[in-house]
Design goal:
Elements: H1 3-8, E1 12-21, E2 26-36, E3 39-50, H2 52-66, E4 72-77, H3 80-95, H4 109-119, E5 123-128, H5 136-156
Parallel strand pairs: 1-4, 4-5
Antiparallel strand pairs: 1-2, 2-3
Length: about 160
């Protein structure tokens, strides 16, 4: 590889995301584990009243927002709603003014807009993994999401 190609190469980052909700709606958390070479970062957050789908979206948004420059990203999620929404459905939603094929307003449209904006800076491959199947990255993201809920609930007790 020439020096020019090395300069053009984007940093590679693998991201594992997950959302959790106790009740739907109910208290929820999101978690993300970012790995690049020997560097890693774990993030999580909490919302008092939310849905699982919103937490799945927040995990991806917050993970991508954490990247300070454009990257080549492999993002792993156990949410087909997230993966298919951002890779397939969003194009139609945008063309239809954030309406579904049946002309209903897109649920969580404000989060989809945020996610779409965050994706524009990066080259992202979206991957699906079966949840709770022992996949280390997914298990870590799930633990981070649940830790955020647990931490908040302990603080309120």
């Amino acid at each position: 590889m020439t020096d020019r190609h090395q300069a053009d190469a984007l940093p590679r980052v693998t991201i594992y995301t997950d959302g959790a909700c106790r009740g739907n709606p109910g208290p929820g958390g999101w978690g993300a584990w970012l790995v690049s070479g020997s560097h890693e970062k774990k993030l999580n957050g909490f919302e008092a009243t939310t849905t699982n789908n919103r937490m799945e979206l927040m995990a991806a948004i917050m993970a991508l927002r954490e990247l300070k420059r454009p990257c080549e990203v492999a993002l792993w999620t156990d949410s087909e709603y997230l993966r298919r929404g951002i890779t397939e459905w969003i194009h139609g939603w945008i063309k239809r003014g954030w309406k579904t094929a049946s002309r209903a307003p897109v649920k969580n449209a404000e989060l989809w807009r945020e996610l779409h904006e965050e994706t524009r800076r990066h080259r992202i491959e979206w991957h699906w993994v079966k949840g709770h199947s022992g996949h280390p990255g997914n298990e870590c993201a799930d633990a981070l999401a649940n830790e955020a809920i647990d931490r908040h609930q302990r603080a309120r007790a």
